[in-house]
Amino acid sequence: MQHVIVIGAGQAGASCVAKLRNGGFAGQITLIGAEPVPPYQRPPLSKAYLLGEMEVERLYLRPESFYAENDIALRLGQQVHSIDTASRTVSVGGETLEYSDLVFATGSEPRRLPAAIGGDLAGVFTVRDLSDVDRMAPRFEAGAKVLIVGGGYIGLEAAAVAAMRGLEVTLVEMADRILQRVAAPETSDYFRKLHGDHGVRILEGVGLDQLIGEGAVSGAVLSDGTEVAVDFVVVGVGIAPATSLAEAAGLEIDNGIRVDAQGRTSVPNVWAAGDCSSFPFRGARIRLESVPNAIDQAEVVAENIMGAEKDYVAAPWFWSDQYDVKLQIAGLNTGYDRVVTRPGEGRAVSFWYYSDGALVAVDAMNDARGYMIGKRLIEMGKTPDPDVVADPEANLKPLLKA
Question: Is pLDDT at 241 greater than 90 in this prediction?
Answer without folding.
Answer: yes
